[in-house]
C-alpha cells in the first residue's frame, strides 16, 4: 500500500474521499434516488455527486437501477455494504473529536500569527 505502484492505493484514494464516505453513509439506509442524495448531502454539487456515484459504481461499490419513468436509484452492492461499518467508525470518530481538532487548529493558527 505504501508503494506508489500498489493497485490498492487507488481503492484507498476512493475511500478517503469525503463525498464517498458520505454517500456510503447515506446509502447505508437503503436505495436512494439522485435527488434524495443531493438533498441529504449538504454542499455536494450535482456534478460532484454524479462523478462520485459513477466512480463508486465503476469500483463495484454502488449499483444503479433505471426505471421506466426515467428515475434512477442507487444502492450499495454487497461489496459496498462491507464498507458500512468502517465508514461509520470514521464518521463517528470525526464527530467525537471535532472539538479537539478545532482547538488544535486555533492554537496552530495563533502560533502562526505570532511569527
From TrEMBL:
Q: Which positions fall inside the HTH hxlR-type domain?
A: 6-102
Q: Which domain of life is it from?
A: Bacteria
Matching InterPro entries:
HTH_HxlR, WH-like_DNA-bd_sf, WH_DNA-bd_sf
- Alphabetical UniProt keywords: DNA-binding, Transcription, Transcription regulation
One of this protein's Pfam families, by short name?
Answer: HxlR
Q: Which PANTHER family match?
A: HTH-TYPE TRANSCRIPTIONAL REGULATOR YODB, TRANSCRIPTIONAL REGULATOR, MARR FAMILY
* Name listed for the protein in its UniProt record: Winged helix-turn-helix transcriptional regulator
The record lists the organism as Amycolatopsis plumensis
